[in-house]
Design brief:
The chain is an alpha+beta fold. The protein has three domains: about 5-130, Uridine Diphospho-n-acetylenolpyruvylglucosamine Reductase, domain 2, CATH 3.30.43; about 135-245, Uridine Diphospho-n-acetylenolpyruvylglucosamine Reductase, domain 3, CATH 3.30.465; about 250-450, Vanillyl-alcohol Oxidase, Chain A, domain 3 (3-Layer(aba) Sandwich), CATH 3.40.462.20. Helix content is about 30%, strand content about 25%. The chain has helices spanning about 5-20, 45-50, 65-70, 90-100, 150-160, 175-180, 190, 220-225, 260-275, 310-320, 330-335, 360-370, 425-440, 455-460, 465-475; strands spanning about 30, 40, 55-60, 80-85, 105-110, 125-130, 135-140, 145, 165, 200-205, 210-215, 235-240, 245, 250-260, 280-290, 295-300, 325-330, 350-355, 380-385, 410-415. The strands form five sheets. A seven-stranded antiparallel sheet has the order 17-14-16-15-19-20-18. A five-stranded antiparallel sheet has the order 7-8-12-10-11. A hairpin with a 5-residue loop joins β10 (about 200-205) and β11 (about 210-215). α9 packs across α12. The longest helix is centred in the first third of the chain and has 16 residues, at about 5-20. Residues about 1-20 have low confidence and may be disordered. The structure holds flavin-adenine dinucleotide. Flavin-adenine dinucleotide binds near residues 110, 115, 181, 344 and 448.
Length: about 500
């Protein structure tokens, strides 16, 4: 069994064995409130809260606490006072009411993949949704009802056997919750739009602990806000997605080019991907491994008829300098998992910056290639993803995602070993310096790539939608209880 599934199963078994037992709290619990002050929770209050849940509450000396507090980016080693592992909507309501009642600093965790570690907090309460991962497919109406703690793989695995799918990210252990609320880019986006463009509605627990539905007819302001506004307005316990008919078999391809032709290969990527066949999904990448080897990759998927794939990919072959040329049919569900390991495996230290390119020119290409420096402790990669096609057909104000005119999403990302905190400073500083040279070519960033931007940058990034977001925040979360995110500050 895959290690992650094993951990999940072991943790679920542990939870199942604890649920029927009464949880005992012998001591008061030191914690942190929303103002950052240290406070102490009365043991009786924690006892009553823990025993009101169907799920469990973990504290630092509980079995399973150290696994439960692990998130994808181990650069962050956060130690919450309490982790409430919720199993249903009532648990989420109880957790929100408990946290609000005590003014607790609170994080919301789904897949735990936030680069800035926003799904975990130091000293506060974590509302952990990861046991709430059920997915129901309505084949007749082509919809998926997905619980707020599910991973992308949970959705793909349930939908694809029916020949149905929708846009989700490219790594299957990423959470549906965080990915979707921030926007959600993925292999199917050129055809079907971003994940938010396929959200038909949500069930959400507000900061007051009320369960509300938001869709085009009910609470349309909230429905607008959750499509790109992140976790600012409440905890989504259920998403309703539109699904699309698709062939569960797709073509996967990967071409690699050595570093000595990197600039030309990158130019090829940009030329080829601009206005490419609508059935192509085209990821570009520059990589630099610890040993100083690296290169440019152009990979992705072809969703058109198999007989046309060679014609569609011909320009990559005409270039004539690929050291890898691999094209093969594969199940979409499997291709959604091929990037799960390696650079994207959970359990390493990471730092990344991201942004949107409006235009591409030779200066950008030169900077991207020439600024890269190898370092024995660090693996580095630049990722590129075209934003044309269906995402660009939606208005900048129709959802919170204002960057509909972007040409590409770009990120520069460093990874190093979990036990090598000695190089944290050096690697973060280097990645920041690299990005400083790339940033002038960008405008705005994807909220899910938030790392260390300040509040002014976050506000500006919401662009023409910021004022309306503040209105929605004032209505649904006027005290800014949900603040560990690309925060919309309330003004009431
Ligand atoms: C390996 C990797 C691959 C990625 N690939 C892609 C990709 O292909 N496409 C893409 O668009 N992005 C991608 N991302 C970025 C990803 O969208 C963000 O990291 C996102 O925050 C992950 O969501 P999560 O639920 O896993 O994270 P978490 O850390 O669990 O949550 C992040 C934040 O989302 C909010 N949140 C999560 N669930 C809920 C909920 N149910 N209700 C309310 N708020 C909630 C909370 O504010 C939380 O702090 C990737 C990230 C990683 C690490």
């Amino acid at each position: 069994m895959h290690r992650r599934n094993l951990l999940k199963t072991a943790a679920a078994a542990a939870a199942a064995s604890v649920i029927p037992m009464r949880q005992v709290w012998a001591e008061d619990v030191p914690t942190i409130n929303l103002d950052g002050d240290s406070i102490s929770l009365d043991k009786k209050d924690v006892h009553d809260f823990a025993n009101s849940l169907n799920g469990i509450v973990l504290k630092p000396d509980s079995a399973g606490y150290d696994i439960a507090r692990q998130i994808w980016n181990r650069y962050w080693d956060r130690k919450p006072a309490l982790i409430a592992r919720c199993t249903n909507v009532a648990d989420v309501v109880s957790a929100v009411k408990f946290a609000r009642g005590h003014n607790l600093l609170t994080a919301v965790r789904c897949g735990g993949h936030s680069m800035s570690g926003k799904g975990m907090c130091d000293g506060g309460l974590v509302i952990d949704l990861s046991y709430m991962n059920d997915v129901q497919i309505d084949v007749k109406n082509k919809t998926a009802s997905v619980q707020g703690g599910a991973q992308l793989g949970d959705l793909d695995r349930k939908a694809l056997p029916f020949g149905l799918g929708t846009t989700a990210g490219v790594v299957s252990h990423t959470g549906v919750g965080g990915l979707t609320l921030g926007g959600g880019m993925g292999r199917l986006q050129r055809r079907f739009g971003l994940a938010i463009d396929n959200v038909l509605g949500v069930e959400l627990v507000t900061a007051e602990g009320k369960v509300v539905t938001a869709n085009a007819k009910e609470n349309p302001d909230l429905y607008w806000g959750v499509r790109g506004g992140g976790g600012n307005f409440g905890i989504v316990t259920k998403f309703l997605f539109r699904l699309h008919t698709m062939d569960p078999m797709v073509i996967n391809f990967g071409f690699s080019f050595p570093m000595d032709v990197a600039k030309d290969a990158l130019k090829l990527y940009f030329d080829f991907s601009t206005g490419a066949d609508k059935d192509l999904f085209l990821l570009g990448g520059i990589s630099m491994r610890e040993d100083g080897t690296g290169g440019v990759s152009i990979g992705g998927n072809y969703f058109g008829p198999q007989r046309n794939v060679d014609r569609a990919l011909q320009p990559l072959r005409d270039f004539g300098k690929a050291i890898r040329d691999s094209v093969f049919p594969i199940e979409y569900v499997k291709i959604q998992q091929v990037a799960d390991d390696g650079f994207n495996a959970p359990g390493n230290r990471h730092y990344a910056k991201g942004g949107f390119l409006r235009e591409v020119n030779d200066d950008l290409i030169t900077t991207l290639i020439e600024r890269i420096e190898p370092l024995a402790s660090r693996r580095f990669s630049v990722g590129l993803l075209p934003m044309d096609g269906a995402p660009s057909k939606v208005g900048a104000k129709d959802t919170v995602w204002a960057h509909r005119d972007a040409a590409y999403n770009i990120d520069s990302s460093s990874k190093w070993a979990v036990n090598n905190s000695d190089v944290d400073e050096e690697n973060v500083a280097w990645n920041r310096a690299y990005w400083k040279d790339i940033e002038p070519f960008t405008r705005g960033f994807y909220v899910n790539q938030l790392i260390d931007e300040n509040q002014d940058q976050v506000n500006t990034n919401y662009g023409p939608n910021h004022a309306r977001l503040v209105d929605v925040k004032n209505k649904y979360d006027p005290t800014n209880f949900f603040r560990l995110n690309a925060n919309v500050r309330p003004t009431v």
